[in-house]
TrEMBL record:
Protein name as catalogued: Ig-like domain-containing protein
Keyword terms, alphabetized: Calcium
Compositional bias segments (type: Gly residues): 983-994
Xref: SUPFAM superfamilies: beta-Roll (SSF51120)
Region ranges (Disordered): 523-557, 974-994
Database matches in NCBIfam families: tand_rpt_95, VCBS_repeat
Residue spans crossing the bilayer: none
Composition bias type Low complexity, residue spans: 529-553
GO molecular function: calcium ion binding
InterPro entries: Hemolysin-typ_Ca-bd_CS, Hemolysn_Ca-bd, Serralysin-like_metalloprot_C, VCBS_dom
Amino acid sequence: VYTPDPDFNGTDTFTYTIDDGNGGTDTATVTVTVGAVNDAPIATDDAVGTNEDTPVTVDVLPNDSDPDGDVLTVTAVTQGTNGSVIIDPVSGNPVYTPDPDFNGTDTFTYTIDDGNGGTDTATVTITVGAVNDAPIATDDAVGTNEDTPVTVDVLPNDSDPDGDLLTVTAVTQGTNGTVTIDPVSGNPIYTPDADFNGTDTFTYTIDDGNGGTDTATVTVTVGAVNDAPVAVDDSIGTDEDVPVTVNVLPNDSDPDGDTLTVTAVTQGTNGSVSIDPVSGNPVYTPNADFNGTDTFTYTIDDGNGGTDTATVTVTVGAVNDAPVAVDDSIGTDEDVPVTVNVLPNDSDPDGDTLTVTAVTQGTNGSVAIDPVSGNPVYTPDPDFNGTDTFTYTIDDGNGGTDTATVTVTVGAVNDAPVAVDDAIDTDEDVSVTVDVLPNDSDPDGDTLTVTAVTQGANGSVAIDPVSGNPVYTPDPDFNGTDTFTYTIDDGNGGTDTATVTVTVKEVNDLPEITPATAAVSEEGLVNGMPDNTGTPTDTTDSVTDSGSMSVSDPEGDTLTVSLTEPGVAMTSYGQPITWTGDGTDLLIGSAGGSEVLRISIDQAGNYTVTLSDRVDHPVVGQEDVISFDVDVTVDDGTDSVSAPLTIQLEDDAPKAGNISANIYIGVDSLGIQNLAAGWTNPVFINGTGDVTQQDTDTDGFIDNLLWGSVPSGGSQSGYSLVDNPVFTGGGESVLIGESFKLADFSHNNWPIYSNSSTLDQVTLTIEMDVVVNDIPTTVQFDVLMDHNETPNNGADPRDIITLPAQAVTFSIGGQEYEVRVDGFMDANGQIVSTIRTDEQAVNPFEIMGSIVSTDTLPVVTGSVSNITGGDGSVSNVIWGDTTSPYGNLTVDSSGAYSFQLNRDTKDDLAPGDTITDTFSYSITDEDGDISSATLTITIGGYQSIDGSALADILRGTAADEYLSGYEGNDTLRGRGGDDVLDGGSGSDQLRGGGGNDTLIFDSADSLITGNAGFDTIIAPDNDDLDFSSISNIRNIERIDLTVGNHDILNLSVTDVLTMTDNDNLLEVLGDTSDSVELTNDWHESGNSVTQNGHTFIEYLNTDDSVTLLIEDQVNVTIL
């Protein structure tokens, strides 16, 4: 054994002597080439200082070293917490730049490299010294009035980067003012020079207390102060009603010589004041007729804010005012004089007494002044009527006069009109208009109108609003003589009254009949579907309607009632409907030899309509109504009348019901523990002389398998395997269908001599416990791996290793699982069975496995609702989109469906997951009516609790769980969650807990009880429930028949009392493929109840104390 000296590399020799044991020896020389192995460099921490905001280059290499004397370079740096670091491209040293304004200590690391793969890292500590930042002074501006000092608060807009406290330490003087520093506030105080106004400036200096200063300028605007003007009182005179302009400014003055203007005035007590827009002086206008003294004030303004106010006294001289005469009007009758009192509406501004001094004559009458009253007296000319005028003059006694006009209306005197009696004839029940005016007259030729009438003894009278004549309407069936009076008016107050005599002639009265409407519905036919929908309306669910048409004769004549066949064409099942019995009291409509509709009526008008079969309705896709009239004729032997009996045939439609089906999935918890893996039974080419085997984890398997003879300084090729530690002890959970790592595998692919030991194949043995729902099962794999050692040349540079996939199947609690060794995970994350490994390299891979379920996928089957109604069979069921990401839905046109959950959905489902998938479908009856609904598949995930082939006792927890007993006589107990209990085969006991549980029915079970909560029994497959032999069900609120085709037989009131809680209420869900047979102690209440998303028909016992709700799609028979 040759051992090189420490750190020696190069060529060395030694000799050795061989001896054959018989005295023969020989000596030879061994030349040993010792390859150099690089020694890593050593980086030593550094420290350096710099000032704030100043970069620093750190010469890190002088204190670093390399055992081999290699040249060192800095190849990488990290960033400081408070600064950035780069490598200087010239010097190769790190350059540290502190963050702006940072000071304190920061660190970064650097890495050195010796050029031969050796590296090391050290830390550089930077001490950044604080540097004071000067404050920043910002210019200010302030204003003050003339002669008024002002304090300037200059610091708020100044700042200091270091947050130092700032003070004002110096000021300069203004050009037109002095500046001092206020000893209290520390602010500059500017005092303007006396009487100065305008703009001035000064500067101030701030100091941060650490040697930093700055200077800014303050601009001061000094406002001028104005001197007010002086206003002096004025006085002026004018005459009554004469405005006067007052020139007020000549005696007013302004100390500053400013131009003065009048800017405001007040109003006088007896006059108004305004400012003349031309002269600018006040203008005083006395109130009408005012005389005497008045005052007002005015205000002057110097244009600079100075104002003053003075008073103006106005003397108004008196002037006489003329009186005002106002026109008058008066009326009188023809030939009647009238005195006109004209003065009351006349007036005199000065209050003088007025008199009438002159009048003019009228055109159609004479005028004089009454010597007593002083008023004009107008006398109309004889027989004059109409309008006339005259004028009069008044005098105020002071020279003032005025004239006005009097209008006189002379009214004509009216003569009354003359009304003359009239006579007229009419027939019984026929109104007559009486033209009464032609024989009436008016002396004045006035137009006459009828203004009033009285009522006849046997008829009513009204005035025709169009002709204005009286209209007489005899009472029904009256004949004979009647009278009434009417009054005429000439429009001028003259009236007269006359009498009209009416002779009413006897005639025959028609018989009377009132229309009627009858409605019948196909919903009442066999298989009909009663509902309350239809267009335009749905009024009945019955095939029969009866009623009465009122028939009578005013004279009591004997009547005959008959029917006339309708004139509308109709069909039934495509065959035309023909009628018999036209003109009789019975109409029968038939199609294809079968009666469809019967209509009958008796002589008193009582009718009955009966629908026997469907009538084809024209509107496709909805319940429509066919409406037609049958004429009903009533005859009194002389005359006849008809009225319609309107027949409404209401359509029936199919009913597609919303169907729900549930798939309950027990979700298993999976885990792996006690994993042990390694190599066994290796097979080599060229023997095993160069093979090394190691069991590093003492699990009895080979973990390191090395082979081959290597050149000097080389290493053997080989496999290494490290078990995944998360599975080696107590283990860890895994998800079904997802890959997980079993072991880390490496191929150390080093050069070996071609004639040395080389691996050909080896068995990978894996043992582990697979834990399903806390039940462990030991699984072992023996996977034969193939190894292809390729030559180390360019044409074939990589070795080839094959790990074929392998699976082991096991069963727990009736569930089948497959544990798989899937293969290697390559660099792209793909699982492959073959890998190629690079020469002269360590090639790491992960060996992956998985667990999948191989049991039969759940299937739910059934049939959607297809109640066709009274219009015949469904042509087909039309499905919408049946694709689903969760499974495969198979349907046919009869409505049958089968939904099978797919593997991904089942495997991915977690406890508590709920998936809902909804499919739409529609059905059409022979009448073309359509009904649509949905099939909803709900998939629920429950934590599995599994039994075995033995008699198990399974207990749930507070979670939602799926308890499966499988074989044996099991006891399943739910707890707080909403659980699913399935006993499987055997005589099981299913005991629900506090949640809303679902219990799978099996006739072999000894007890099924829901206990607390809203609990449901599900009938599996197509099983029936015959309650003549079932007595072991307790505390159940619902029986669900929706999945599959089921019959409930012999369900009695006692059965419901036995199986329900204290509320004595049971729901039954199902569809048209299901039926319920009730004993005769039940009766249908006639009520429809909607609750929990379903519509039920209500059934009660004899005293209504027990309630059974059966979904309206289920076929029900009461024995």
